Structure formats: structure tokens, C-alpha cells
Amino acid sequence: MYEQRLKLYDELIARCPRFARKGKTMPYTSANGHMFSQLNKAGEIGIRFSKEVQEAYFKAWPSTHFTSYNATMRGYVLVPEAMLEDLDKLAEYLNESYDYVMSLEPK
After folding, report:
1. pLDDT, tens only, 19-67
2. What is the pTM of this model?
């Protein structure tokens, strides 16, 4: 399961040429000093959004907060299973997240 999700996560990120995957044991993306997506050990993908966008997506998607290493990741939405079938649409959300972190103060 995890290896399949890692492959899918890599395919998703390959559709987004403005950034690359990082991390060997904990795959993630980051920009401007801020992490904005992650693949946890359970093979779940979390994407970071602004608080307002996050709340809108909680209402629109059957989802919840993303967790990694038994910690709730504030600002991250767990990508629902059904959304993993449309990588083009998911890439739009990931690009939206990238734009969000690029609007934050650099770390």
C-alpha cells in the first residue's frame, strides 16, 4: 500500500513543475521554508491550505485534518481516497497550496 501511494505521490508532484519532492523516509514538498504537502506512513496525503480555504474544503470534501506521526498537522487537509483517482485535479489543489506558502513570510 505505502509503495503504491509513494508512486502516486511522485506522479502527482511530477505534474507540478514549480517544485520537487523532498525527503527520503518522509516524503514532502516545501517552498519558501514551509512544508505544504506530505505522505505519512499510512500512505495518506495531506495538503496545507490557508485557514479559510481549509474550512471550505472540509465542507466540500468528506475529509478531516491530516495526521502524521500521531500528530494532527494544523493547516493540513487529508486528501480523500476518491480524489486520488484524478491526479490532474489534485495537482491543481497542490499548486494552490504552493501559492499559499509562497505568500507567507519566508522562514
Report:
1. 999 999 999 999 999 999 999 999 999 999 999 999 999 999 999 999 9
2. 0.95
Domain ranges of the chain: 2-102
CB-based contact 49:57 (threshold 8 Å): yes
Report residue 15 CA to chain centroid gap.
13
Q: Which of 37, 40, 39, 56 is nearest to 95 (CA)?
A: 37
Which residues are bridge partners to 2 per DSSP? none
Say which residue the cell 475529509 belongs to. 63
- Architecture of the CATH domain 2-102: 2-Layer Sandwich (3.30)
N-to-C CA span, the chain:
34
Helix (H) or strand (E) holding 34: strand 34-39
